[in-house]
Amino acid sequence: MKRLSRELPRFALYGDNAPIDNAEFVHVELIETRSLLHDRYIVPHMHRGLFQLLIMLDGHVSAHIDNMQWECEAASALAIPPGTIHTLRFSETAKGYALWMNWNLVESVDLFVPLFERARVLRLQDNPEVQARLTALLEQLVIEARGPRYGRALLAEWLGRSVLLLLVRLETERRVADEAGRAEFDLFSRFRALLEEHYREQWQVGQYAEVLEASSARLNRACQQIAGKSAFEMTQDRLMLQACRTLIHIPTSVANVGEELGFHDPAYFSRLFRKRMGVTPKEFRDRALSGTERGGSMASGQPDTVE
Questions:
Q1: 4-178 belongs to which homologous superfamily?
Q2: What is the pLDDT of residues 162-219, one digit of tens each?
Q3: Minimal CA–CA distance to 5: which of 65, 46, 52?
Q4: Which of 19, 167, 221, 275 is 20 to 30 Å from the Cα of 229, by its Cα?
Q5: For the chain, how long is the longest CA-to-CA vector?
Q6: Where does the HTH araC/xylS-type domain lie (predicted)?
């Protein structure tokens, strides 16, 4: 009896045995188009050096992956590592995108690798914003696939990486929510949204807590648990982030930068900026505009944001 691995088709794509020469290969197809060619059933096979994503927007797919059965309902994403034996059966209503990416592209960014450590399903139905953004990116990839155009490979790589990053962010936020508790993660998320609306007004933590119908202590606990810093530190970081952006991109005085952020005393604004950023606002602007900050201490010292 022959070994199974010798009998299995090793597809570059569904049913395609052509070699892949492009080291930065990215390919996308509509699920409803490709699956119909195979009567909605893809025989057991594996992909050579390709990471695969199935983005299900409608219907469902039954996937048998390395002796495990997966039922993937829309809207969701099914991640399949390379070299994994799998069978796919799509429903008649199945719609979405099949995306393949070369090993080199995924492995080049450590952030992406955990997404494909094993087969997994990521739920999209609970996050319509991410679903809409993924759909827009994948539709752009479909447009690029229609024919050769200048810079096509590079643009396809950027779009593919953007898809992966959105999914990594989604999975990270799910993990954080599981660890911190869904209620605490929801409080933290609402705080971040409220902070974006009112950071220029320099609300106190108590004001945020009151609007969020939570105590200041609980809000601080949620921020410490998820972001590793207090709610007050997050408000200060947001102010400094905007200050840095304004100093670099808007030709106005340091005093005006502080004034727009609610600092009516220019000296106090400069002292606070230096305390948190390590340099004065003028020094920060001069270094950034001269190009010395690219990859340097200012880039790494800029306030963190939790994605």
A1: Regulatory protein AraC (2.60.120.280)
A2: 999 999 888 888 887 777 787 888 899 899 999 999 999 999 999 999 999 999 999 9
A3: 46
A4: 167
A5: 83
A6: 189-287
